[in-house]
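pinned: reference chain
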Amino acid sequence: MSLAQQLRWARRGTAYFARKLGELPDAGFDAPTGLPGWTRRHLVSHVGYNARAIARLVDWAATGVENPMYSSPQARAAEIEEGATLSVSALRALAEHAAVHLDVSWRDLPEDRWNTEVRTAQGRLVPATETTWMRAREVWIHAVDLGNGASFVDFPPDFVDALLVDITGLWQRKAQGPALLLAPTDRDARYRVDIDGAQPNVVRGSSVDLARWVAGRGVGDLKADEGELPELGRWL
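pinned: its C-alpha cells
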C-alpha cells in the first residue's frame, strides 16, 4: 500500500464518517452501539480522541521527541468515558476539529520523517506511514458502528482488500484463532491463516462479507466448507 493510497482512504473515510455523523439526530446519541458498553456518545468520543492520539504519533515523527498515543490503557478508557459526557454539540465539534488537526499534521510532516518509527497503543514499532492506515480503519469501520446506515458495501474495494490482508496478517503473526482460508467469490485472491499446521477451514463469500465477518461486524452470506463458520478471535 502506498502512502498516497492510504491517505486517500483515511480522508475519504473521515468524510464518510462525518457524513453519517451529520445525518444522526442529536436525540440518537444516547442509543447503544454493537460495541460492548458503548453508546454512540462513547463511539464519537473515541473517534475524536483517536485522531488526537494519532496526531501525537505524527508529532513524535516530526520532532523526534517521544509522544505516545496514550499514557496508559486506563487513561485512554477514562478519556473516552469523560468525552461521552460532553454535550452533543461538543462531541460533534470534537470529532470534526480533531480530524482536521490530524490531517494538517500529515500535511506538514516533512517527507524525510515519514519513515520515523513510532509506537502504537498495542506496543508495536511502526513507521509514521502506518498512522494513515490506522486512522483509515478507525473511521470506515466506526462509521458502520454508528448504526446510521453506513455499510461495508460503501467501502472502497481496494480498502476492503487491504483490510482482509491486515486482519488475517495480524492473526498469522500472533498465531491466533482458527486456521482459515478466505476465498472471495468476487476476487482472484486468497487470504490464509496457518495455525500449527492445521488444515484450514475454507470460508467463501464476497470480499465485503468476508471483511465484515473478520472485523467482527456480522456474517452476511458466507459458507464454510466444514459446515459451521468457525469462532473468530479478537482483531484489535
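why pinned: The beta strands are 117-119, 125-127, 180-184, 191-193, 201-205, 223-224. The chain has a mean pLDDT of 95.
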